[in-house]
Design a protein that fits this description.
A hairpin with a 2-residue loop joins strand 27 and strand 28. This protein has a 7-stranded antiparallel sheet with strand order 5-4-1-2-3-7-6. The chain has a 6-stranded antiparallel barrel with strand order 9-10-11-14-13-12. It has helices spanning 2-23, 35-38, 46-62, 101-104, 252-265, 282-289, 307-310, 331-340, 380-385, 435-442, and strands spanning 66-74, 80-90, 96-100, 109-113, 119-120, 123-129, 134-139, 149-150, 161-166, 174-185, 204-207, 219-221, 226-234, 247-251, 271-272, 275-281, 295-302, 318-322, 325-326, 345-352, 355-362, 364-365, 373-377, 395-400, 419-425, 428-431, 448-455, 458-465. The protein has 468 residues and is α+β, with helices and mostly antiparallel strands. The chain folds into 4 domains: 61-139, Beta Barrel (Thrombin, subunit H), CATH 2.40.10.10; 149-265, Thrombin, subunit H (Beta Barrel); 271-365, Pdz3 Domain, CATH 2.30.42.10; 373-465, PDZ domain (Pdz3 Domain, Roll), CATH 2.30.42.
């Protein structure tokens, strides 16, 4: 039985080989190959070379400066695990890197991977700004790094070519190209619950160059190889999380202003004009202000001794344009104030009693809006005086303004002597150990916060809202 089985198996294999040989197509000999395969490759036409060359040269110039940012988190045993990655680019001889804040969020350690695959771990975070989603890192090692050239995003025009470089899905040094689809796109990152138009800090460049997860923080460049934006967000439609042809980049001029502040002070303050504004549609503008505009901002209050007052602006002035850009979308004003920064200038076109005027404002530094609270750092002596543990650290409230967000509701209010030890915002959860920590969170200008306070009687947590 066994022997016959082996014979049958051998016979089957033999017949299989015979049929396979018979059925297999005869190998084509070299002389039978089509001439088209044997001819020399056709060279590109000069027209093709001329059209492609700007893309090739721009990419060749910038690609070595683009890095992959590796975000590591430490587990309970002290082991590091990569939790995410994004992109960035080197822009100074001192090793400064621009990227997105969300790329480095919650990192225990950061590293960067260069174009040639080299991984550098000597990375320091100089600052991160939640309102613009910009972060600045610095490489502190000895390796000399290539530098990207920063362009002028105010000169960007709709329809011009744009190239995105980054590491989508960890595919390093990936290049995609498209056009600038729109400029001045607002509301991409802003808190839509806020109604103070001067606090928005974004006016994005929209592009159809393919952006996908991992592109965040990488450069958007023009055909001169100059960075015009930082790729930050994509529209994915209702279904997936990948590119559908709509991506957004932070204009590099705004990134410059924020980066300077982060490098010099660790926090980014915006330009401040000192006027409160509201939005008016075409019907309201025509009926109440005798102005024919599809929409504009109307000043509701001018702060005494502010840049707005010094420039001659008054209550009920209708603000039509800032630096030549329409304020029909109210968020544009905050974006321009952010980009100009403290001591920067903006030019506003306005209407007063139906007559057009121009005002040039030299902006001041955005004041820290503290929800009506004054605080100081809590030390051991003060903690003892308040009957609190000596080891407790935070910001102790020394004064609260009447009818402020901090006192508006009986069940959710702050009292002198309360110690704020944590604040939760839409930007994240922040431990508060000093007055400086408190002010740093307030500089983010959150529209609502959840405060955790400690008192002699125990601990409380509650929400405060800046606007009603």
């Amino acid at each position: 039985m066994i022997r016959r089985g082996l014979i049958l198996l051998g016979l089957g294999c033999g017949l299989g080989l015979l049929f396979a040989t018979w059925l297999q197509p005869r190998a084509v000999q070299g002389g039978d190959a089509p001439a088209e395969l044997l001819d020399d490759p056709a060279p590109p036409t000069q027209r093709s070379v001329d059209l492609s060359r700007p893309f090739v040269e721009a990419t060749r110039k910038v690609r070595p400066t683009v890095i992959q940012v590796l975000n590591y988190i430490e587990d309970r045993r002290g082991d590091l695990h990569q939790q995410s990655s994004g992109s960035g680019f080197i822009f100074s001889k001192d090793g400064h890197v621009l990227t997105n804040r969300h790329v480095i969020l919650n990192a225990s350690r950061l590293a960067i991977k260069l174009h040639d695959g080299t991984v550098l771990a000597h990375m320091k975070v100089l600052g991160a700004d939640p309102r613009s989603d910009i972060a600045v890192l610095q490489y502190t090692g000895d390796k000399k790094l290539p530098i990207a050239e920063l362009g002028d995003s105010d000169r960007v025009e709709v329809g011009e070519w744009a190239i995105a470089i980054g590491a989508p899905f960890e595919l390093t040094s990936t290049v995609s190209a498209g056009v600038v689809s729109a400029i001045g796109r607002t509301g991409v990152l802003a808190d839509r619950r806020a109604n103070d138009f001067t606090q928005y800090s974004e006016a994005f460049i929209q592009t159809d160059a393919a952006l996908n997860p991992g592109n965040s923080g990488g450069p958007l460049i023009n055909l001169d190889g100059q960075v015009i934006g930082i790729n930050t967000a994509i529209e994915t439609g209702r279904e997936g999380r990948s590119n559908v042809g709509i991506g957004f980049a932070i204009p590099i001029n705004l990134a410059r202003t924020i980066a300077i502040a982060l490098i010099e002070r660790g926090v980014a303050k915006r330009g401040w004009m000192g006027a409160m504004v509201g939005y008016g549609n075409a019907t309201v503008l025509k009926r109440e202000f005798n102005v024919d505009l599809p929409g504009a901002l109307v000043i509701t209050k001018v702060i005494p001794n502010s840049p707005a007052e010094r420039a001659g602006l008054k209550k009920d002035d209708v603000l039509a344009k800032v630096d030549g850009r329409s304020l029909q979308d109210g968020k544009m004003l905050g974006a321009r104030l952010s980009q100009a920064g403290p001591e920067g200038t903006v030019e506003i076109e306005y209407y007063r009693e139906g007559k057009k005027g121009m005002a040039k404002l030299t902006l001041a530094e955005e004041p820290v809006d503290t929800y009506g609270m004054e605080v100081r750092s809590l030390d051991g002596a003060m903690a003892k005086e308040l009957g609190l543990p000596a080891r407790l650290r935070g910001a102790v409230v020394t004064k609260v303004e009447a009818d402020s967000p901090a006192t508006r509701h009986r069940q959710a209010r702050v009292y002198p002597g309360d110690v704020i030890y944590r604040i939760d915002t839409r930007f994240g959860r922040f431990p508060i150990q000093s007055k400086e920590d408190f002010e740093r969170v307030m500089l983010m200008h959150p529209s609502f916060i959840k405060v955790a306070v400690a008192t002699r009687g125990g601990q409380r947590e509650f929400f405060l809202k800046r606007w009603e």
